[in-house]
């Protein structure tokens, strides 16, 4: 007896540890809710193994990486369901996103929700606000459309909202910056958002990562110098611009590619971004001298200025930062030679792309230097359709002044003309003023080409 006692005890302890009952069982109502979610999602492959008998809180619902259920005590706090990498076709017509959200609201402690690549379709329902505990939401790669509903602004704990690769439309709502005090990550990549990026995003107190790439946004970005935590800004592939955005000094990654940014880079400001690792301003309309100081930013690893009209001469001696890995200077108007620190054999091994400039590389990848000189002079002075002509800086400048004078004179002339015309018609009082307006615009838009022709004559 005395000898069997400790053995029995050990056995019991052993059993207690081994039994799945070691974790509390999920409340029966929540098990039922999870099975309803499985049904509403059309029993996706990731959830095929869910049964009434599944021990969800003991890890039985989890099949990494596509499905997982996490409990705290006997209640579900996290639910991740991911479809295949390429996404799923839209769920059948009897699918209802509203019903799914209503069902999920029966998991009152749900904090983290991933439903990506599952074929969800429909407008985002305002009743998402019922999932009041949500902190992290990822509903990427579905077929969500319509605007971002106001209801989301009630999710006061929301820290991360990811709705990439959907068809969300309308504007980025003005309240995102101010109504969600905890919002740290906002990612709305590859949707159909239009309009301007709201000013309020410049005041989002916790914002760390803002990704609005591949939408149809336009206008200038809000002033984001006050966003002390902002590290990632990716707005590539919109119609944003013309001004380079104002950013806090702690940014680590800035992607502005494929937009309508123009003017020069704010060289002094950029050289204070000591944590900047990734800067991509490619395929915009930037002009002006390329600031070589960018190459020596201490943290910079990736720099692309490709496909703009940056000018200036590089030299052997321009220094490079220790962390540079890729520099793309292609398709600009740069002259001189690639800095020694960027040439093969330099350390660290940096990949450098520089074709279609006027650098002295002698490998056939470059334009002859007069090309860059002429293009550089043309930037900002000569209108687009006049670019091919050779103009000296002087002649261009004079032509500019002459054009300005001519425009002023002709505007005054046109105004006088219409004033007279209006007076002569005053008696008849037949034509509505809208017609006059049309006349005026068509007349004034007819002027420039004549003016340019005149300017060309003078310029010869
Ligand atoms: C939708 O219809 C299909 C086929 O009729 C059915 O198998 C499925 O259970 C229905 N789904 C829902 C969520 O009602
Ligand atoms: C959101 O879901 C997508 C698709 O499953 C995944 O690739 C991405 O990493 C997720 N984002 C985050 C921040 O978890
Ligand atoms: C953008 O999202 C659509 C779905 O709305 C998807 O089909 C497409 O592959 C995505 N594009 C990219 C480049 O990811
Ligand atoms: C993008 O917005 C502009 C107006 O800002 C509109 O003319 C254009 O059709 C939109 N493009 C798409 C693809 O929605």
UniProtKB/TrEMBL annotation:
For this protein, the record's InterPro entries field holds:
Leu-rich_rpt, LRR_dom_sf, PGIP
Q: Which domain of life is it from?
A: Eukaryota
Membrane-spanning parts: 397-420
Name of one Pfam family that matches: LRR_8
**Keywords of the record:** Membrane, Signal, Transmembrane, Transmembrane helix
Q: Could you say which residues form the signal peptide?
A: 1-28
Where, per UniProt, does this protein localize?
Cell envelope
What name does the UniProt record give this protein?
A: Leucine-rich repeat-containing N-terminal plant-type domain-containing protein
Native species of this protein? Triticum turgidum subsp. durum
């Amino acid at each position: 007896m005395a000898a069997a006692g400790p053995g029995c005890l050990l056995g019991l302890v052993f059993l207690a540890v081994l039994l799945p009952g070691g974790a509390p069982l999920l409340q029966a109502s929540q098990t039922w809710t999870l099975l309803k979610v499985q049904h509403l999602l059309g029993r996706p492959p990731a959830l095929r193994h869910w049964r009434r008998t599944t021990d969800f809180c003991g890890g039985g619902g989890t099949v990494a990486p596509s499905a997982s259920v996490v409990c705290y005590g006997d209640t579900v706090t996290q639910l991740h369901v991911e479809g295949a990498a390429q996404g799923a076709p839209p769920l059948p017509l009897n699918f209802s996103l509203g019903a799914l959200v209503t069902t999920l609201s029966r998991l009152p402690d749900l904090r983290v929700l991933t439903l990506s690549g599952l074929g969800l379709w429909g407008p985002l329902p305002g009743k998402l606000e019922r999932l009041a505990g949500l902190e992290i939401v990822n509903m990427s790669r579905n077929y969500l459309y319509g605007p971002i509903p106001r209801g989301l602004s009630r999710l006061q704990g929301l820290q991360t909202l990811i709705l990439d690769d959907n068809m969300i439309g309308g504007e980025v709502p003005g309240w995102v910056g101010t109504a969600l005090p905890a919002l740290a990550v906002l990612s709305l990549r590859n949707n159909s958002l239009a309009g301007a990026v709201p000013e309020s995003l410049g005041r989002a107190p916790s914002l760390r990562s803002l990704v609005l790439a591949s939408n149809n946004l336009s206008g200038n970005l809000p002033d984001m110098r006050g966003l002390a935590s902002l590290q990632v800004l990716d707005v590539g592939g919109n119609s944003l611009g013309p001004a380079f955005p104002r950013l806090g000094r702690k940014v680590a990654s800035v992607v502005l590619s494929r937009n309508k940014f123009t003017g020069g880079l704010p060289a002094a400001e950029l050289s204070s971004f000591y944590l900047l690792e990734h800067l991509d301003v490619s395929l915009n309309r930037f002009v002006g001298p390329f600031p070589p100081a960018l190459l020596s930013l201490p943290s910079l690893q990736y720099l692309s200025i490709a496909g703009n009209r940056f000018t200036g001469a590089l030299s052997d001696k321009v220094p490079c930062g220790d962390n540079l890995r890729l520099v793309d200077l292609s398709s600009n108007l740069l002259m001189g030679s690639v800095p020694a620190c960027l040439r093969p054999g330099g350390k660290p091994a940096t990949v450098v792309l520089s074709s279609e400039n006027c650098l002295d590389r002698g490998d056939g990848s470059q334009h002859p230097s007069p090309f860059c000189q002429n293009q550089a002079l043309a930037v900002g002075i000569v209108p687009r359709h006049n670019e091919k002509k050779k103009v000296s800086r002087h002649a261009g400048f004079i032509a500019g002044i002459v054009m300005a004078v001519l425009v002023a004179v002709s505007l005054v002339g046109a105004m006088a003309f219409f004033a007279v015309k209006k007076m002569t018609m005053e008696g008849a009082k037949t034509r509505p003023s809208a017609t006059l307006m049309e006349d005026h615009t068509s007349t004034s838009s007819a002027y420039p080409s004549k003016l340019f022709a005149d300017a060309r004559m003078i310029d010869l």
